[in-house]
Amino acid sequence: MFEEISKILVVDDENVNLELISAVFIDSPNIMVITARDGLEALEVLKEHTPDVIVLDIRMPRMNGIEVLNVLKSDPNTSHIPVVVLSGDEKERKNALKNGANDFIPKPFDAEELKLRVINNLQVKKYQDLIKDINEVLQKEVMKKTKELREALELAKEAEYEMVLKFGMISEFRDEETGQHIRRISYYSRLLAQLAGLPESEQNIIFYASPLHDVGKVGIPDNILRKPGPLTPEEFEIMKLHTIIGGKILTSDTRFITLHAGKIIALQHHEKWDGSGYPKGLKEQEIHPYARIVAVCDVFDAMTSDRVYRPAFTVEQTIDIMKKGKGSHFDPELLELFMENLDSFLKIKETFKD
Question: Which segments of the protein form a coiled coil according to its record (predicted)?
Fold first, then answer.
């Protein structure tokens, strides 16, 4: 899958788990598994190796997984490395996510699920590295070129948008939404930002960042993400974690404007105007304008599209339902702008239909 060798550091105090996880990747020649038997040994390994993903057990002697996480995320040299925690305790998993973990795998673990989750995180890391490298190259080139550089910048921006779309589609492939869904969100969001009076520079930011709103779904188990019926309260609590996971995935240097805006949107697009949303229960102006805009657009597109658990609503049904959420779910001014310009949004929907 990857041309270069990808390194995975597995930290677990049980030898049988180290052997099982190493065996999972024995048929992956481009993946190297490095092991450590506790947190202190892992920190020593990190002095010689820079892994692309760390698989970290929580309960270990000498230095537990949470303590290791705190060290990793406080060090600029390791804070960018995705960490997948292993734990059989739901509270421990949530605590790990709050402390900087990017994903989790329940214990006892399923070998195939573990492999897929690690590879998903490797893909995310590769996209982040690629975007970072492109931005760094462009910053250097700005010093040297004029007309040729401007043309290169335009091409790079188009390439960045395509990469962002592919990045967003990692999760879309798993929950059976389509690439057209995230393209529609992109165009809807830019239009609503324009109608709301945001500067053109911010209209462009939300255009590029909004496709990343659900990237955190890459960390949600398939049996929940693809469930054909209603989620149980416990399953819904896990589903809600996709906002936090998305925020962790998109955490980056604030110089990378698209990723920083994507982080805000991923974290806040399920917050509600009246404070009843998640993950933090923000309300009104506490919610970033980008997230309030994407919330309106995402709900409209989701409701008017087929899902595994229900067929699409008609546009009329969707509008009636969304009107009931004015001032409770949605920013009332943004929803009004959306309704007043519905024909323009429907043209976008037709242009990028599934």
Answer: 135-162
Higher pLDDT, 251 or 74: 74
User: What topology does CATH give the domain 6-121?
Assistant: Rossmann fold (3.40.50)
Give the whole-angstrom CA distance, residue 161 versus residue 185: 13
How distant is the alpha carbon of residue 211 from its chain centre? Answer: 10
Q: What pLDDT was estimated at residue 259? A: 85
Rounded Cα distance between 34 and 292, Å, is 43
Nearest alpha carbon to residue 20 among 53, 55, 51? 55
Distance CA 76, CA 41 (A): 19
Cα-Cα-Cα-Cα dihedral sign, residues 257, 225, 327, 347:
positive
Assigned superfamily of 145-351: Hypothetical protein af1432 (1.10.3210.10)
What is the model's pLDDT at position 14? 92
Measured CA angle at 2 (ends 135, 168), to 5 deg = 55
195 phi, psi to nearest 5 deg? -65, -30
What pTM was estimated for this model as a whole? Answer: 0.62
Domain(s) labelled CATH 1.10.3210.10 in the chain stretch across: 145-351
Over residues 203-212, the pLDDT tens digits come to 999 998 998 8
